[in-house]
Amino acid sequence: MRELAKQGGLALLLLTSSARAEGPAPWMLSPSRARLLLLDAVLSLERTIQAADRALRRLTLAEQLNPLGDSPAGPPGSTLAPPGSAPRRTGPEAFRETQHGPFDDLILAAALRFEIDPFLLKGLIANESKLEPVGSGKRQYAQHAEGRVLVAGGAIGIAQFTGGGIRAVNSLRGIRARRSRTVPLRFDGEQARVPCQAIPAAAEFLSFLVRRYGRDGGITAYNTGLGGGYAVRRMGFWKARRAGMLDRRGIYLLQGHRFLLNVLRRTNQYRVRAGLSPLPLPVDTELPRSRAPRVAQRELGPSSLRTIPFTARLLQHRHALAEESL
Fold it and tell me: Would you say 71 and 277 are in contact if contact means Cβ atoms under 8 Å apart?
């Protein structure tokens, strides 16, 4: 829309310039007055587009504050169902009606207990193990000064717990035990291989991470550890990814640069099939700067073209025409 307005505005400027050369017809405005009116209209349109861009950015950021994302299928951010449609379903209701896999009852119960989106939990587990209670993931070794070292892989179970993840779950349960004075079930490597134990542990761990680092940081931290979640919360996913903070920690290789996107992709596949709207993707707060368009100066000649911001160029042209018409 913005590019169309620019092209149309330049074409009309050229027409009014040619009309000045040939002499205006009696029914036409003077070329200077016509160009002033045209530039005022194009400036107003450009400002409206910029305001809409800012509003859309705020709306997208606000959508990320709703981790359950229980809006019906439709445009992202939509909260009203189409006229004549069935009453709006929540995420757990849609999950219960549409998901009938062998582990879906466990996933729904764990998601309700720890207050997270069941589709998000299923998307994360599906990304980790394809919902198969595998023994352990593929291991990757590298040669270092201290010898052959495991640098990636080795996670176990349907939720792909590492040693650090198991210790984190036990730490969370220890905190809950001190608060409620109960002795929780200790989580270990053997239980990580049992889906009925691993899925609630994954929901408990993911719920803690999302509350601490936000949706994007929490999902990332499930793969990279707390450092990756902190980087995403502080810098945003895309900036942390460009800085190389999500693909390596010391000698250890991570998958944080694509883990969040893969989890959201699988989650949204389940949500769309269930009739819910997809969760928004992470927002890049530092969009790459596109090359500024070329706008003609007062004489509209090829030798006077130069690259500057569109709105600033129009304002300069508008002031020049106003001075000329005095």
Answer: yes
Print pLDDT tens along the chain (326 aa).
555 555 555 555 545 555 444 555 554 567 777 777 777 777 777 777 777 766 666 565 555 444 444 544 444 444 444 555 555 677 899 999 999 999 999 999 999 999 999 999 999 999 999 998 876 767 666 777 777 766 667 788 999 998 889 999 999 998 888 887 676 678 998 999 999 999 999 999 999 999 999 999 999 999 998 999 999 999 999 999 998 889 877 766 678 889 999 999 999 999 999 999 999 999 876 655 444 344 333 333 343 333 345 555 555 565 566 555 55
Spell out a b/e string for 253-262, using b for 16 or more CB atoms within 10 Å of the CB, else e.
ebbbbebbbb
Q: What is the DSSP string of 122-165?
A: HHHHHHHHTT---SBPPPEEEEETTEEEEEE---BTTTTB-HHH
